[in-house]
Design a protein that fits this description.
CATH superfamily: GTP cyclohydrolase I, C-terminal domain/NADPH-dependent 7-cyano-7-deazaguanine reductase, N-terminal domain
Keywords: Folate biosynthesis, Lyase
Protein name: dihydroneopterin aldolase
Mean pLDDT: 81
Shape: elongated
Enzyme class: lyase
Strand content: 25-35%
Number of strands: 4
Pfam family, one: FolB
Radius of gyration: 18 Å
Strand order of the largest sheet: 1-2-3-4
EC number: 4.1.2.25
Largest sheet: 4 strands, antiparallel
Order of helices and strands: HEEHHHEEH
CATH architecture: 2-Layer Sandwich
């Protein structure tokens, strides 16, 4: 049983050992990770949470198909976790989300869209939220959409509307 205050994504070997039957990253992925990033932000749904920052702990694992950096030894050929760290700190300052689920989704989107990860696992935790609980939180996994996917098609539709002067309503 993990008795430390720092939540983990699972033991590191589990995070790195991908299996096809558990919806984890495919075995051919190189995984870049950050464990235990501490920050504070205003997030929550209860009145007591909406007026002052509270601590969060963030773990991320981002997968890329065999990083070119393995051959080139250049940071530009992989995900630079120092840049991911900086971006996560900026998100903590700038977001206006209420739920940890939405916050975790924003992190996943950043890793996929800005850092070109093919697969991500994001865990966001509120440590000591309750006196009798070590931590509460969420963990999500996402895959980058395939080229020509519904998300890409939706973006093209929105661009067509914008070009015609029409803006679609948000659902």
């Amino acid at each position: 049983m993990n008795t430390s205050l720092r939540p983990s994504i699972g033991s590191l070997p589990d995070a790195l050992r991908a299996t096809s039957d558990t919806a984890e990253a495919p075995a051919s992925m190189d995984l870049i990770f950050i464990e235990g990033l501490h920050g504070e932000t205003v997030i929550g749904i209860h009145e007591s949470e909406l007026h002052r920052p509270q601590p969060l702990v963030i773990d991320v694992v981002a997968g890329v198909p065999r990083a070119l950096a393995c051959d080139t030894d250049r940071i530009a050929d992989t995900i630079d976790y120092s840049l991911v760290r900086e971006r996560l700190h900026r998100l903590l300052l700038e977001h206006r989300l209420q739920l940890l689920e939405a916050f975790a989704e924003a992190i996943a989107d950043i890793l996929i869209e800005e850092f070109r990860a093919s697969w991500v696992r994001v865990k966001v935790v509120k440590p000591r939220k309750f006196d009798d609980v070590q931590s509460v939180g969420v963990q999500i996994e996402r895959h980058a959409p395939a080229a020509g996917s519904a998300k890409a098609a939706h973006g093209a539709t929105v661009l067509k509307f914008l070009a015609s002067g029409m803006v679609p309503a948000r659902h």
